[in-house]
TrEMBL record:
It catalyses: DNA(n) + a 2'-deoxyribonucleoside 5'-triphosphate = DNA(n+1) + diphosphate. In addition to polymerase activity, this DNA polymerase exhibits 3'-5' and 5'-3' exonuclease activity. The keyword DNA damage applies. GO terms for biological process: DNA-templated DNA replication; double-strand break repair. It comes from Sphingomonas alpina. This is DNA polymerase I. SMART domains: 35EXOc (SM00474), 53EXOc (SM00475), HhH2 (SM00279), POLAc (SM00482). PROSITE patterns: DNA_POLYMERASE_A. The gene is polA.
DNA sequence: GAAGTCACG
DNA sequence: GACGTACGTGACTTCG
């Protein structure tokens, strides 16, 4: 049978307030009444499991003080003192508490909570339901009847008709008359002077009801009582109306909507954590099945309040830090962020740590503020070693999920300070896996997109230019506002992204490809790679000499000095001053002088510019190598480690590839002999060697699998040279020329072919190019179908998908501008192939460490990734043992999630330097 | 900060 | 009839 519990929230708050000490929460807000109220709801939640427990429940609150009773009697409740100052802010929190329990909360303008309760009670009883009113309000006792009782959670007792009889001497049905005679000094119900509960019940029992009493008054024995009853008859009648519960309004919410559907844990947990109600949190943890996996989808997201920077706490004593850590451990998750002295994680020093537990419940723990100015006053903060030891227990606690935005950075910084971070979620990866191609994934951009919030700009905190200060020099108040906001915002991202992962089918790529990679990349960045600074310096000098000589010759040929490095000046010199024909101007009106143009001129025996073009090309190559590699790389050596530590971005490339910056170690020269020398400057430590392992033709293999091309699949299975095979199929013979053309066509297919593009590359007409493409499609059936299918899918869904479920979005696929649309189509053809390749090598990287450990090779260190290549450093003696392990991990990286119909070929080389390892 | 150029897969 | 021509990156130089 349905059983409706109606909770008299308003009545409860006042009782709880007076019964409990003036408790405050972690923010210093008074929460005594809220705590009492919360424990009351907790008790009710326990009732849920009982046989006659609630099936329906609602909390009823007073909305406003002005009701119809004030219209009847202007003094009604007029004498009530205003609620105590420290109770007022708790009223809205009561609503939060109710929401935390996922209970409906009902309040209606112009009606007191008692009236609404009466309405619901009557309606439920009429349907044959059981009703329990959670209150000890005497007015509500009028409602007691068979099927309706009251429950006082403070005394843990049920109240029925016999309780009313005992306390007021009458049954519930006559209670209104008694209350009218008694009056109520608190509510200012007048009643009749001199009549209290005893007299009232006696009179009602003698005369039946109020009207009976008033009618009998003149015949009573003379005295004060008789006179008062006669004189105050109207007041008594008014009182009768005032105490009557009014239930003639429609129900604000239908009864059926009050059905209990369980109490989701997440919002409750968040609420308890927000206020720091530790004992209840502990109880919750005791009954929780999985403390880390949280159904955050039930968290009310729309209702996150705006960031309250002044509400963040600066944690400067151990007790406060303990408190935050305890709550984080109880809650089971915490958003974290680190503040440091710089952007390079392998050099930056830790300055502070921020944490967030709930929107607006965030703190900053300064660790090294005070700046470098030894005369400046150092603010009070927890001893760094002590604080880090405490934080270590939290960050390494396997039952507490750490949430970060680009956690790789924090992992490196914290790792250098001796702290691991696990388990973790990374909101930058979540955003990338959900929305790659739609927008960037930096905190500021995401905050604007998802939270309509503009984060405090870092430069507004530390300044710019020569006035820029280190974060350690920032005052704690400002630092807290900035740092805690980052953790707060990160937590808000997580609450939004986490439920989207399964809903949008990207959990697999997040959990199986990207997330496991974070600690792996962090470790690679920390390792860095040794470079031979002397060798680079020597190359720089050589290049400078050669450039100087070329510069003189170029100026002589040009008939005067100019800046060779300026495309504008060079274009004018070549095409205006020297009168070379065939100059093409770009949209900015500058002649193109790129490598294609210069090669064209240099190849033309009759051109007056062929010598200068050749020399400029040589000069450019040297200039590029010197400035980008030999000079820059020397400057990038970390003095502490003597090695170069790149930074990999996991969210930089739309297709899921990594990218490398500061320095970019994914574009170290290899294609020319001059450039190759730079690879020789990347070396192994004494007694070690470098091992380079790369996937051979991985993208073509994946194309063969994904487009299901039997001829290509078979060729890979046999181990044939794929470009020769293509040459044979397309041109009927294999020689250097046809193989080269075939290679170009193979790549063109992967990149989304156009007849003009291919024509330009092969130096043939568009018609001839088209004929080759047609023949390719004919010889390799499946390719054309793959292209058509991919474009169709991306037009329909707006995104492509890799074999592992990685999405890349192409909003421009619906552009009205043709070339944007076509560009998106070409990118969409390439993305599943390039992306799947990226997924596979990422999986290999994540599995590599454990596989090497298992093979007893803990000294093999993975240093670099270059899209289809992994570079390791290992003791010379480990090479033979490591080789098969590395090969196996790479070759089987797709499995078992994806079983490919082509083998993945791996080529491995070793050497003292990266150059010789190839 | 944009544009041009060029290093890599 | 104009447009622009292969996918994905990052770093450096010049110049306004």
């Amino acid at each position: 049978m349905p059983h409706l519990y109606l909770v008299d929230g308003s009545g409860y708050i006042f009782r709880a307030y007076h019964r409990l000490p003036p408790l405050t929460n972690v923010h210093g807000e008074p929460v005594g009444a809220v705590y009492g109220y919360t424990t009351m709801l907790w008790k009710l939640a326990d009732e849920l499991h009982k046989a006659d427990g609630p099936t329906h429940m609602a909390v009823i609150l007073d909305k406003s003080s002005h009701t119809f009773r004030n219209e009847l009697y202007d003094k009604y409740k007029a004498q009530r003192p205003p609620p105590p100052e420290d109770l007022v802010p708790q009223f809205p929190m009561i609503r939060d508490a109710t929401r935390a329990f996922s209970l409906p909360c009902i309040e209606t303008e112009g009606l007191e909570a008692d009236d609404i309760i009466a309405c619901y009670a009557k309606a439920a009883l009429a349907q044959g339901w059981l009703v329990t009113i959670v209150s000890s309000d005497k007015d509500l006792m009028q409602l007691i009847e068979p099927g309706l009782d009251m429950y006082d959670t403070m005394n843990n007792r049920r109240l029925g008709a016999e309780h009313v009889q005992e306390k007021f001497g009458v049954g519930p049905e006559r209670l209104g008359d008694v209350l009218a005679l008694m009056g109520d000094s608190v509510d200012n119900v007048p009643g009749v002077t001199g009549v209290g509960p005893k007299t009232a019940s006696k009179l009602i029992n003698e005369h039946g009801d109020l009207e009976g009493v008033l009618a009998a008054a003149p015949s009573m024995k003379p005295g004060k009582l008789r006179d008062n009853l006669i004189e105050q008859a109207d007041m008594a009648r008014l009182s009768r109306v005032l105490v009557e519960l009014k239930c003639d309004v429609p129900l604000p919410e239908p009864l059926d909507d009050l059905e209990l559907k369980g109490i989701p844990e997440a919002p409750l947990r968040a609420f308890l954590a927000h206020h720091g109600f530790k004992s209840l949190l502990a109880k919750l943890s005791a009954v929780a099945d999985t403390p880390v996996e949280v159904p955050v989808s039930t968290v009310p997201q729309e209702e996150d309040p705006p960031c309250d920077h002044d509400g963040y706490e600066t944690v400067v004593d151990e007790a406060a830090l303990d408190r935050w850590i305890t709550i984080a451990k109880h809650q089971g998750w915490v958003a974290i962020d680190t503040e440091t002295t710089g952007v390079d994680a392998t050099r930056a020093e830790l300055v502070g740590v921020s944490m967030a537990l709930h929107p607006n419940l965030a703190c900053y723990i300064p660790l090294a503020h005070g700046g470098t100015d030894m005369f400046a006053e150092v603010p009070v903060q927890i001893d760094r070693t002590t604080a880090l030891a405490k934080l270590k227990t939290l960050f390494e606690d396997p039952s507490v999920l750490k949430i970060g935005h680009n956690l790789k950075y924090d992992m490196i910084v914290l790792g250098r300070a001796g702290l691991d971070v696990a388990p973790f979620d990374d909101t930058i990866l979540m955003s990338f896996d959900l929305d790659a191609g739609l927008h960037g994934h930096g905190m500021d951009e995401l905050a604007a997109t998802h939270l309509s919030h503009s984060c405090i700009a870092f430069k507004d905190v530390v300044g710019t230019g020569k006035n820029q200060r280190g974060f350690a020099e920032i005052d704690l108040k400002t630092a807290t506002r900035y740092a805690a906001e980052d953790a707060d915002v990160t937590l808000r991202f997580w609450r939004r992204f986490k439920p989207r992962l399964p809903a949008e089918q990207v959990t697999r790529v997040y959990e199986m490809v990207d997330r496991p990679l974070v600690p792996v990349i962090a470790q690679m960045e920390r390792h860095g790679i040794k470079v031979d600074a002397a060798k680079l310096a020597q190359l720089s000098t050589e290049f400078a000499h050669q450039m100087g000589a070329l510069e003189v010759e170029i100026h002589a040929l040009a008939g005067g000095a100019f800046t060779i490095g300026s495309p504008k000046q060079l274009g004018d010199v070549l095409f205006e001053r020297m009168g070379i024909k065939g100059g093409r101007k770009g949209k900015s009106g500058v002649y193109s002088t790129d490598v294609n143009e210069l090669e064209r001129i240099a190849a033309d025996k009759d051109s007056p510019g062929k010598d200068i073009a050749r020399k400029v090309l040589d000069w450019r190559q040297l200039s590029k190598l010197k400035s980008t590699y030999t000079d820059a790389l020397q400057a990038q050596i970390n003095p502490a480690t003597g090695r170069v530590h790149t930074s990999y971005s996991l969210t930089g490339a739309q297709t899921g590839r990594l990218s490398s910056t500061d320095p970019n170690l994914q574009n170290i020269p290899i294609r020319t002999e001059v450039g190759r020398q730079i690879r020789d400057a990347f070396v192994a430590e004494e007694g070690n060697v470098l091992l380079a392992a790369d996937y051979s033709q991985i993208e073509l293999r994946l194309a063969a699998h994904m487009a299901d091309v039997p001829a290509l699949r078979d060729a890979f299975a046999r181990g044939d040279d794929i470009h020769s095979l293509t040459a044979q199929e397309l041109f009927g013979e294999v020689n250097r020329d046809t193989r080269g053309r075939a290679k170009t066509i193979n790549f063109a297919i992967l990149y989304g072919i156009s007849r003009w593009g291919l024509a330009g590359r092969l130096d043939v007409t568009a018609e001839e190019a088209q004929a080759m493409i047609d023949r390719y499609f004919e010889r390799f059936p499946g390719i054309n179908n793959y292209i058509v299918q991919t474009i169709e899918t991306v037009r329909e869904k707006g995104c492509t998908t890799t074999l592992f479920g990685r999405k890349t979005h192409f909003p421009r696929i619906r552009s009205k501008i043709q070339h944007e649309r076509q560009g998106a189509e070409r990118a969409a053809i390439n993305a599943p192939i390039q992306g799947t390749s990226a997924d596979i090598i990422k999986r290999a990287m994540a599995r590599m460490g454990p596989a090497l450990i298992e093979a007893g090779l803990p000294n093999v260190r993975m240093l670099l990734q270059v899209h289809d290549e992994l570079v390791f450093e290992l003791p010379e003696g480990d090479v033979e043992a490591a080789r098969p392990v590395i090969e196996r991990v790479m070759a089987t990286a797709a499995e078992p999630a994806v079983m490919l119909s082509v083998p993945l070929g791996i080529e491995i080389g070793t050497g003292k330097s990266w150059g010789t390892a190839h």
